[in-house]
Specification:
64% helix, 290 residues, mainly alpha, 16 helices
């Protein structure tokens, strides 16, 4: 972290990880696809980004490509801006929140939804968002303009969304500083074993195998990837530096909650994520190198 941080090293990242994953359960849920379909969105590529981009308003593919970093412009251009001629961003946001409500109730169960622990997790996460900053963070800033839901499970989900986008916007600064283009960022992240499966990444982000292979060659030329597609020591160090830089840029929300609050929010977030995962929240083949 930093010399002035009151938190243990990487405490913010450890707290972010389960909250980010809990946030993403909605995008993998059948409820999300069903709610989008109910407002007329049936393009199979649209769900992967339209729910997040709706907070920015009726933007075109250029803005989305800039804000999302690792999506292919051509993929986005197949959906936007034409989509806005038939459905409004407000309708998409409404569908997304309805999906979050139904999906979380299914994945977590009525007892957890109504629990004191859920209310506690929501209060801690919302408190963390109080220290997020808007400057140079377009996706966070757009979502921060949306109202905070009153129900605890939805307040937690929205707060997790804010924390996710706040960290994500800062992460893009780190990727730019590291000199990784969109596909190189995906390939190198996948090579850590913690990123999306390459097939998922290519399909949902709109890149071809040729794009992927060319990016891998560029990484090899920089000494970041070896002949087998594994990160070299230099590559491992670069990815670690990127995460450390992201941690520094994302420190404020967790400092605001304090060490004890971060530890408790991490514990609660992990418990909720474990329950959701056990209920089938994610595809089995989502993460990994293969």
């Amino acid at each position: 972290m930093t010399e002035t941080s009151s938190l243990p090293p990487r405490a913010g990242r450890r707290c972010h990880n389960p909250l980010n994953a809990l946030h993403s359960t909605v995008y993998f849920s059948p409820e999300y696809a069903a709610e989008l379909a109910s407002i007329g969105i049936d393009d199979p590529q649209a769900p992967f980004f339209v729910g997040r981009v709706a907070a920015l308003g009726q933007v075109g593919p250029g803005v989305v490509a800039a804000a999302f970093y690792n999506y292919n412009y051509d993929l986005i251009a197949k959906v936007l801006p034409a989509l806005w001629e038939t459905v409004s961003p407000e309708a998409v946001l409404g569908a997304r929140m309805r999906a979050a409500d139904v999906a979380l109730r299914r994945l977590l169960g009525a007892e957890i939804i109504a629990s004191d622990e859920m209310a506690e997790a929501a209060a801690l996460a919302v408190r963390a968002t109080e220290a997020c900053t808007r400057q140079a963070r377009p996706l966070y800033a757009a979502h921060a303009d949306l109202p905070m839901p009153e129900l605890p499970h939805l307040a937690l989900w929205h707060a997790a969304t804010l924390l996710r986008e706040h960290r994500g916007d800062g992460h893009l600064v780190a990727l730019l500083t590291a000199g990784l283009d969109p596909v190189e960022a995906l390939v190198s992240h996948t090579a850590t074993g913690k990123g999306m499966n390459p097939r998922w990444a290519m399909r949902t982000r709109g890149w071809s195998q040729a794009d992927w292979d060319a990016a891998a060659e560029r990484l090899r030329a920089r000494g970041l990837l070896d002949a087998e597609g594994e990160l070299t020591k230099v590559g491992v160090a670069l990815r670690a530096d990127i995460e450390d830089a992201t941690d520094r840029l994302d420190l404020a929300p967790y400092e605001h909650v304090g060490a004890a609050g971060v530890e408790r929010l991490t514990e609660l977030g992990r418990g909720l994520l474990m329950t959701a995962t056990a209920a089938g929240a994610f595809p089995e083949t989502l993460v990994g190198k293969g």
